[in-house]
Amino acid sequence: MLAQLAALAPLATAQATANPAGAPPAQLEQGRIWSVRVSYATREDIQRLSRWIDHMRVDKAGKTIATELDARGVERLRRMGYAVEIDAERSEKIRGFQRGRQQLPKQNIPGTPQTSQKTSALEKPGDPLFDGKSACYRTVEQANLDIDALAARYPKLVRVAPVGQTWVQTQLLSFRNLLIKYLPQSVLSTIDFDLLPDSEANPLRAVVIGNQDRIRDKNVPRMVTTSSIHAREYTPAEFSTRFAEWLVKNHGTDPTATWLLDHNEFHFILHANPDGRKLAEQTVAQGFGSGWRKNVNLEDAYCKSPDDELLAPYIGPIESGVDLNRNFPFSWNGSKGVGSSGDACELNYRGKSAGSEPETAAIVKYVAGTRQQDGNFAGGLLSDRRTTAPNDFVTGAPGDYEGLYIDIHSFGELVLWPWGFRPDALGGHSRTANDDGLSAFAQRLAWYNGYAADQTLFYDTDGTTADTFYGELGAPSFMIELGTSFYELCEDFENGILPKNMASLRYAARTLKAPYQLPLGPDAADLKLSATAVKQGESVTLTATIDDDRYLHSTQPITRHDPQPIQAANAYINTVPWDSTAKAISLSATADTAFGAGPKVTVSGVIDTSAFLPGKHLLYVQGINRNGRAGPPDAVFLEVRAKDAPQPCPPAPSAS
Prior knowledge:
The chain is an alpha+beta fold. Helix content is 25%, strand content 19%. The strands form 5 sheets. Strands 5-6-8-7-11-14-12-13 form an 8-stranded mixed sheet, sandwiched between helices. A 5-stranded mixed sheet has the order 16-23-22-18-19, covered by helices on one side. The protein has a 4-stranded antiparallel sheet with strand order 2-3-1-4.
């Protein structure tokens, strides 16, 4: 470690440190988490600092890094020679989050040992169980309870599938006794053991969603997501849980949710690091450390204090564990120590070998399957269609690949895609052979959530989830960094992060049939009918917006996608456009903009319902641009009543 610390030369010419309320730099309040800014000069500075302050917002114009550290982390950087500036306003928002988490142990939390028999009848899954500004983030146990209740209520739409064990579950000792064995009393004193799982910790689970009446025994596109693989990232798991709940609860009432579940299957690993999350829930609340990040491997990845007396107080067992998002097998340590660390005390410790951690191995097996003698994978959720030699960075995947993988993190407001570093084989850049489709997909998502679509972070990473599932399988793979903090207040999550990213993920789900191709075509939006219910034989007018101008570029995108004029649009009745039985009904451009004149056109068409059976029908719309690229469709409901059906009664007048 000391050699690595020596390589972390101080950043150039930082200004005097600013502190809230005039507090001396060495007297930051212990137990608080601080939003800080650090100046940098070059990309190499960012790379060095990524070992200690992973996840950062980079202001290229101002040459500053913004991140979040506890008092130990701030002092550690100062001891290394860096000047650290405190952002008082953001730090106070984090303090609000901490206060909210500190209330958790005082409430009844179903599923924990001391409260499992105390849950009142009013506390049903999904209800907020505690007050505070971070009450919206469910614990691991509460999320599991809510999903179990969802599966019980909607058995044809939801099931829970086992994924595998965590490191704690592979040990002979219980979670409690493992912590007692390895951690010093200074850390143990901050842990409420009654809030830990009974003995073997929480297993890795997947929530599987799809309309089994429609997709059973069919080969349908699949969307796989992992969330909160870094334990202290609260928003990803909650966001994914909300999206899963939205899909299920809106099936049959919302046309988009309905057609998505009727033609696709979704697999959500809501908590990809549940052991680490249980410690993160407590260390933040109890004021020790800035939140557990890695898994809870306290044997192979135990962090001992360094011999350096200067740094010894600021590095220790709280930094233990393996960074699971540097432990995945494709190009593990591929950047030769730049994109990950071999030191267990550093945030991006990659583990002793590729895929060494039970969590990593379980996720790979669940998503990709098992590697065969010929080197290819079989038996997983996503197909292996990039049959290449190990660590091949050059060969592309077929453009008609079906299915998608997304790893959801916080923070940074980014949409990222492979590669995570610049392999030697590519001569200093990181562009994949599928960059056209990957970059278009990312820039479409960015239009919805307002984030930056960038191929890589501001620093190199290797052994990551997205690189592995693209590198091994050829699956379109992405990473979304939610928000601007690990510790988002609920009001910021509910009012900003959640709605924008729900829209973004709904778009992603609409592309599952061909994620490399459909984002290169225009979006179908604002579908409307002149009447939502008609009698059989009556006509209805369908209108929609076909929009190819929904790209959001970062400042310097690897591949820029420009909007194309709209060439055509079609409607389809009860069949997705790619179905072999689908019959296209041509839609016309309205008087506002003609086909070929611009990237955004309002279209319409009259739908004759004479051949419709009574019941609810889905009307799909898909647009095509000048390049002949068809975009992702969307749908709207139309209810058709029998010719002799009585008219529904008008609503009764309200009492005056």
